[in-house]
Design a protein that fits this description.
Largest interface: A-B, 136 and 128 residues
Number of helices of chain B: 40
Order of helices and strands of chain A: HHEEHHHHHHHHHHHHHHHHHHH
Largest sheet of chain A: 2 strands, antiparallel
Structural class of chain A: mainly alpha
Radius of gyration of chain A: 23 Å
Structural class of chain B: mainly alpha
Largest sheet of chain B: 2 strands, antiparallel
Number of strands of chain A: 2
Radius of gyration of chain B: 43 Å
Oligomer: heterodimer
Shape of chain A: globular
Helix content of chain A: over 70%
Shape of chain B: elongated
Distance between the termini of chain B: 86 Å
Strand order of the largest sheet of chain B: 1-4
Strand content of chain B: under 5%
Number of domains of chain A: 1
């Protein structure tokens, strides 16, 4: 205890001394809010009837917080809060820029939709099992991953979301679910470990974990540290999280096993967190290395797209098909990352946001279809159009959206990506994007024809219910309308995304937000 | 004003959905009114587009992408607008009578209006991207229209094929248009139309041409993409009439004509467009002769006529372009009326098969006359509109445009196709209306309702009027359209029936006579032949399409999935590790990275030995995991202890304490869980029995593991031998006490500097515990692990043998003395935990270690007393502890809000308690308390999840035994 002997320290170099504005709390609030609601739900374990309502209200609150956060960032640029008032790079900084805020908002919308859908999908035993606490803690992890400005902290949120997603995937404990969960768990643990190891290397090279600090030191270290290896390992770790080829196998192996709402949430959230981390690390932190790797990433992107599209073609199960379509979408996003520039990165972000909404909605649709038709399998699923024309119309719109046809949300990112690929002369990449669009059209067209337009045989499916629970229809409709609205009037979103992409490539505003007074 | 053309149909479409399904009339009136409104607006705008006038409507939409919502109407677009809306009105009127009562008409008309809106969008787009958007919309809506009778498999297949072909073509076109925009520097059509030379001389001209042609040719059903159109005829006839006349297929030639000024005139254009057009013209006409289905005949004739238009556009001469535009209009009028007539025949007789039909002139003379005039127009008989545009075509075919073989062939091909056209037109009339009366028709034929025939009457009248006095009827409008395309280079031309005896007229007569002769030669064959032309019928475009799809979707996709998507975990993990090695190694190798020299200095033998033991333990654990779980677990503990000792060695007592506690708890918990695993696999495989394959596999995995581990170590070594960067670690050491208020750096880092990470990590711990708890809640052990362990069985058997003992006594008495000691340990461990907790900020310890230590106390109680005994005496609420812990930790973080500080700000101070003395009281202490509570809760939760298993299992066992007995 040498307290008395040490001279008084210059606190201003290390500590935030001024009181922070209340607005700054918006950065941390999504995580704290989700953790608190999650803890509350754990405490109310006996009152499982309350769970869904608390969770839905909590998620609605999360959407609201994220809306305010986005508005704040739009109005006054990136926002930073340093935890425990230790100035960066020493303390952990939560820094949110436009791309982070966009992703966080989209994630919360998806989660809210899932929360509402769960009213129709999660029964008492699922509630007793703890679906809602897991959901809230998952959202804490997802929000944390989107908002953090510290790479080790990012790892922590990855862990949070991985473990909660593991809890969700085993929900029900059927043999098939356990099988899917084991594959999911093991492969993702390897990826997470890889991430951790690489973060260790990163720290050894940079001596710092703060993203802004890394971003400004990266150029200087390019000659001396093996940054290419670091980048390659990060790309692999995040690519695996995102289910990029050739490490995509865990996704189709596990996404069709859990409850529909869980698949839907996974499709909307998990791979996109991987993509987000990949964008953050390769575009903002290690841009030079990304450029050098761009050909490899482009190759991976093209193969991911094709593997996804062809894989989807080979499926005759609604949810397995969707699993492959998620992979195909990841390929498109990777193409944008490979191409780079405002067009490529903007296209990638746009595509990711679109994919979050649309894939989640499609999983909802698969669940409703199974309710109506009694099966996920194409061999017995039929006559859905006759049973519920409105539902068929919604599904069809989503199918067009995922195929990248106008006037739905998938069209614009596809245009941006193709244009960006053509601009750098990557013909084959543009061709792969188009081919994927074509194959996706074939896939979804086939499903629509067989499951929706084909008439069910006499007496078949007579036992299945012909009505759809409003709790299931509402989120599906809302997400579809959102996809249509984005397709019809993409301008505000597109403008925001362009700014976000520029902010990633030229992170001076981000750096300023973390180090307001310049370099320490 | 222009936005009406887009808004009205789409808004009308939305409204029409909500009409009740039985309101056929009202919906039709509504849809007709919308179409009529658009028509009237278009008519009213005519004065603005004459002599090259252009109307524009701009709305900022996506300025970032250079895309505005620009509508642009010039003379050509105006002509198309009028065609689309006028025929739209007629088709709605016709559909009112055509659709059966059981069809959901509002849905049909809603789609119809949407389709009209999309087509108007294509026609009026003033921006290339907007055009592509509407283009895809027509594909989408036509998919729904063609599949309207979705209970019919043909309709479904036709719809899918149409969507796949035209949708894909549209995507290619989009790329073409994007490239074109790149060449020009703008997507605005007005700019593009003035940049012809720029486009034609660009190195990108060829790709642009090919991509745009792919879009146009698929849409216009040109060879070799023609096959989707005949299959689209399973749509309701009003749809066919509309698709084939004014919309859909016309969108392709519209685009060719629209871009004609900037793209035509090159050799590449001439060859590609001309070849596609000429072959389509001939093959379409030839195939049409052999169709037995009325609509099939008309569909192939559409293909052929579109081929004619394409050939005209390919020639690159202004006069040919005039003829093309003229023929677009003419074809629309006679083809719409013919489809409607075919629909009436189908509607009133119940069949469209020409082998069954005949002599209908006796039953429906009015329809017969109309159909005859219209098909005469199709055949190109003088005094009808089809004749005039065909004469112009012949005249242009004779002209030499390019000195090559295709140009030489064109007149012959044209004459031959004209001959075929006569033949199929004649066949249409002769086989349906003449000959012997039909037998066994599904319905007795009669004239259709008055107003169902009215649209045909109107169209046929148009054919006649235009055919007789072209110059004063269509002349000015055609001129307006042509000027819009050709501008200054508009040629002199005359629209007249009689141009004197010239070569085109002779060609016409040859075609007429030849066609009639051909028909009578083939008449008998056709009366009974099967569908489709000889030889070619074997080569079905549709079948190729389907086969490609099947190959893609089943053969390729399946085999790809099988090869790449193994569903087994082991290969997946092996593959993953392999990729990781490659990802790490390749960049190093490629950048000629120099390995730092390996420095061997001051290796302490004791430390090396420690690690040798640790490594041996780890390898042993992996080796035995499958065969002897207990041994593997013990070895795992050994490896853990090595880590622990290493921490001590490297002067990190805090980590060592925590690691030790964690090792103890996890090992004990796993031990408790071992009992519920299925029986282990006996190691019966002798090494000599191992096949070569297995040996190879093991060797490979071993090498993989060595490489991966060695690689990780090597990179770490590389990193660590680099000169140390200015790290934040030195900072932490410096500040831990001064500002973190603690002398235990590790703990200060954990709860203060990086307290937020800790918050996340305890969240992870909570989730893990919840997952384990939830999993075990549903866990039903394997049958072979249900029965009591051997030791208990022996003990119970001993009790059974001794009459003075009750069953279970021995189990209770077993290890009696240790268990009493274990019970007494509880308060001692509690004190230890409190001690660890309080001193945490300055010395090894802290909330985490205290929580783990405390949970050891609980574990001991459960082990010594049994589940029931403990839970009767202690209130165990691990879930509540966990949630309180998480809430306290989060609340400590948020609490700093009140003081205006960021999340998790700590406030350090010393406090004095009686007995304990001075102890550090930072607000981080509350955070630490949360950690403590959560760690304790999580560990105990896992513990009781395991413990309750042993209460539940005997019950399950008993149940299983009972049901087994009942069964036997």
């Amino acid at each position: 205890m040498a307290a008395s002997t040490s001279p008084p320290a210059d606190l201003s170099a290390a500590l935030v001394l001024d009181p922070v504005a209340s607005a700054e709390w918006l950065v941390i609030l999504p995580v704290a809010w989700c953790l608190a609601i999650g803890a509350l739900l754990v405490m109310l374990r006996r009152k499982i009837d309350w769970h869904p309502y608390i969770a839905v209200l909590g998620l609605a609150g999360l959407v609201l917080i994220d809306v305010f956060l986005l508005r704040h960032v739009l109005a006054s640029g990136p926002l930073t809060m340093v935890m425990g008032r230790w100035l960066p790079p020493f303390g952990i900084a939560f820094t949110v820029d436009l791309s982070g805020a966009l992703f966080a908002l989209a994630a919360s919308v998806v989660a809210l939709a899932g929360g509402i859908y769960s009213l129709a999908d999660i029964n008492d035993s699922g509630r007793r099992y703890g679906f809602y606490p897991f959901l809230m803690l998952l959202m804490a992890g997802v929000s944390g991953a989107f908002l953090t400005g510290d790479i080790f902290n990012l790892y922590v949120w990855f862990e949070v979301l991985l473990i909660s997603s593991f809890g969700l995937i085993v929900l029900g404990s059927e043999r098939e679910q356990i099988d899917g969960a084991v594959k999911y768990g093991f492969l993702n643990l390897i990826a997470t470990t890889l991430f951790l190891i690489t973060t260790g290397y990163l720290y050894a090279s940079f001596g710092t974990l703060n993203m802004a600090d890394i971003a400004r030191k990266a150029e200087g270290l390019a000659g001396t540290a093996p940054l290419m290896t670091l980048t390659a390992l990060f790309v692999l770790a995040f690519g695996m999280k995102a289910a990029a080829f050739p490490v995509n196998f865990w996704l189709p192996a596990s996404y069709h096993t859990p409850r529909v709402v869980v698949s839907a949430l996974f499709a909307g959230l998990l791979t996109k967190v991987g993509i987000y981390a990949l964008i953050r690390v390769t575009v903002m932190l290690l841009p030079l290395q990304r450029e050098e790797l761009s050909f490899v990433i482009a190759l991976v992107a093209a193969l991911t797209m094709l593997v996804g599209a062809f894989g989807a073609l080979a499926q005759s199960d609604f949810r397995r098909m969707l699993g492959y379509l998620v992979v195909a979408g990841i390929g498109s996003i990777l193409a944008g990352i490979a191409v780079g520039g405002p067009g490529g990165i903007g296209g990638a972000i746009f595509y990711a946001l679109h994919s979050m909404l649309v894939m989640t909605a499609l999983y909802f649709a698969s669940g409703i279809a199974a309710r109506l038709g009694g099966s996920f399998s194409l061999s017995s699923l039929a006559g859905l159009y006759r049973r519920h024309a409105g539902f068929a119309a919604l599904t069809l719109m989503l199918a067009f959206a995922v195929s990248g046809l106008p006037p739905f949300s998938g069209f614009w990112p596809k245009v941006m990506l193709v244009k960006a690929a053509l601009d750098i002369g990557a013909w084959w990449l543009a061709g792969a994007l188009l081919l994927t669009g074509f194959l996706t059209t074939v896939v979804t067209g086939r499903f629509f024809l067989l499951a929706y337009w084909r008439d069910a045989g006499a007496g078949e499916g007579a036992t299945a219910s012909a009505t759809i629970s409003p709790a299931a229809l509402l989120p599906l409709t809302a997400l579809t309308v959102l996809a249509l609205a984005i397709g019809l009037y993409p301008e505000p979103l597109l403008a925001t995304i362009q700014t976000a992409a520029t902010g990633l490539a030229e992170p001076s505003a981000y750096l300023n937000s973390v180090f307001p007074g310049g370099a320490p | 004003m222009l936005s009406v053309f887009i808004l009205a149909p789409f808004a009308g479409s939305l409204l029409a959905i909500f009409f009740p399904p039985d309101q056929r009339g009202a919906t039709a009136w509504f849809a007709g009114a919308i179409a009529l409104l658009c028509f009237l607006v278009a008519a009213g705008l005519y004065p603005f587009v004459t002599s090259g006038g252009v109307l524009r409507y701009d709305l900022a939409w996506l300025p970032e992408l250079g895309l505005n919502f620009t509508l642009r109407m010039d003379g050509f677009a105006w002509l198309f607008t009028v065609l689309v809306t006028a025929i739209g009105v007629l088709v709605v009127l016709y559909a009112r009578y055509y659709m059966a009562a059981e069809d959901p008409v509002p849905r049909f008309l809603a789609l119809f209006l949407a389709f009209m809106g999309s087509m108007l969008g294509v026609v009026l787009s003033g921006n290339l991207i907007l055009l592509a958007v509407f283009w895809e919309l027509t594909s989408i809506v036509s998919f729904l229209l063609i599949g309207y009778w979705h209970h019919n498999a043909h309709a479904r297949d036709g719809a899918r094929m149409a969507l796949t072909m035209t949708g894909t073509g549209g995507l290619c076109m989009l790329v073409g248009l994007l490239l074109m925009g790149r060449i020009v520097g703008s997507y605005d059509l007005d700019v593009v139309l003035t940049s012809g030379d720029l486009i034609r001389n660009s190195p990108l001209y060829m790709p642009v041409l090919i991509l745009i042609l792919l879009g146009a040719l698929t849409k216009s059903a040109q060879f070799p993409f023609h096959f989707w159109l005949p299959h689209a005829m399973s749509a309701p006839t009003p749809v066919s009439a509309y698709l084939h006349s004014a919309t859909m297929v016309k969108a392709g030639v519209f685009l060719l004509a629209r871009l004609w000024p900037v793209m035509a005139g090159t050799e590449a254009w001439f060859w590609t467009v001309g070849l596609a057009g000429l072959s389509t013209l001939l093959l379409g006409a030839y195939f049409a002769i052999f169709q037995q289905d009325l609509k099939g005949l008309l569909a192939y004739s559409t293909i052929s006529h579109l081929g004619l238009i394409t050939v005209l556009l390919s020639l690159g001469s202004p006069l040919a372009a005039v003829a093309a535009v003229f023929h677009i209009v003419n074809h629309a009028t006679f083809k719409a009326s013919l489809f409607m007539a075919a629909g009436i025949i189908d509607h009133e007789t119940g069949t469209r098969d020409m082998r069954k039909l005949g002599g209908l002139i006796r039953y429906m003379p009015g329809t017969a006359v109309l159909a005859m005039v219209a098909s005469a127009a199709m055949a190109g008989v003088p005094l009808l509109n089809g004749f005039i545009s065909k004469e112009m075509f012949f005249a242009e075919a004779i002209e030499t445009h390019q000195a090559n073989i295709l140009d030489t062939m064109t007149p012959y091909g044209a004459t031959l196709a004209g001959m075929f056209a006569v033949t199929y037109s004649l066949r249409f009339i002769h086989s349906v209306f003449y000959g012997k009366a039909p037998e066994d028709l599904p319905k007795v034929p009669h004239e259709p309702p008055r107003w169902m025939r009215a649209p045909i009457e109107f169209l046929v009248l148009a054919c006649l009027v235009v055919g007789i006095i072209p110059a004063i009827t269509i002349g000015p409008f055609l001129h307006t359209a042509v000027v819009a395309i050709l501008g200054a280079s508009t040629p002199q031309y005359s629209l007249a029936v009689w141009h004197g005896w010239n070569l085109p007229l002779i060609m016409s007569f040859v075609a007429l006579a030849g066609g009639v002769g051909l028909y009578f030669l083939m008449r008998n064959y056709l009366a009974t032949s099967i569908e489709g032309p000889p030889i070619f019928r074997l080569l079905h475009g549709q079948r190729i399409f389907e086969r490609v799809l099947v190959t893609l979707s089943w053969k390729w996709a399946r085999s790809l999935e099988q090869r790449l998507g193994t569903r087994r975990l082991q290969p997946q993990m092996r593959f993953l590790v392999f990729i990781a090695i490659a990802a790490a190694a390749l960049p190093l190798l490629l950048s000629h990275y120099e390995m730092p020299p390996l420095l061997v200095r001051s290796i302490d033998p004791a430390f090396a030995l420690l690690w040798a033991v640790g490594i041996a333990c780890a390898i042993g654990a992996a080796l035995l995991a499958k065969f002897h779980r207990l041994a593997a677990l013990v070895l795992l503990g050994g490896a853990g202890l090595t880590t622990c000792l290493t921490f001590v060695w490297l002067s990190a007592p805090d980590l060592a304490v925590t690691q030790l506690l964690v090792e103890i708890v996890t090992t004990v918990l796993i031990l408790l869980g071992l009992r519920w695993l299925p029986k282990r696999i006996e190691d019966t495989q002798e090494s000599e029995l191992l096949s070569l394959q297995v040996r190879f596999r093991r060797l490979r995995d071993f090498l993989l593991a060595i490489t991966a581990g060695g690689g990780v170590a090597l990179i770490a070594y590389t990193m660590m031998t680099r000169p140390l960067p200015e790290t934040i670690a030195s900072y932490f050491l410096e500040r831990a006490y001064k500002e973190g208020g603690g002398t235990n750096v590790v703990n200060v880092i954990l709860v203060d500097f990086r307290g937020f990470d800790t918050l996340g990590e305890i969240g992870v711990l909570a989730i893990v515990a919840l997952t384990v708890f939830a999993l075990l809640l549903r866990f039903r052990p394997q049958a072979d692990s249900l029965e009591a362990p051997e030791q208990q069985r022996v003990q119970n058997a001993f009790d059974d043998d001794h009459p003075d003992r009750n069953e279970g006594d021995s189990v209770a008495e077993y290890l009696f003395v240790p268990s009493v000691i274990m019970r007494w340990m509880f308060p001692v461990i509690g004190m230890l935990a409190a001690y660890l907790f309080l001193r945490g900020h300055d010395l090894p310890g802290g909330g985490f270690a205290a929580g783990i230590a405390m949970s050891i106390g609980f574990i001991l109680q459960y082990m010594s007393g049994g589940t029931r005994w403990v839970e009767e005496r202690l209130r165990i609420h691990p879930l509540r502890w966990m949630s309180i812990g998480l809430l306290v930790a989060a609340a400590t973080g948020i609490g700093s809000w009140l003081f205006g500080y960021p999340f998790l700000t700590s406030h350090a101070q010393y406090a004095t308690l009686p007995i304990v003395g001075k102890f550090p009281l930072a607000s981080a202490l509350f955070f630490d308390l949360g950690v403590f509570s959560l760690v304790l809760g999580a560990t105990v939760l896992i513990l009781i999840a395991l413990a309750h298993q042993s209460i539940r299992a005997p019950r399950a066992h008993a149940r299983a035994m009972r049901s087994g007995k009942e069964a036997s």
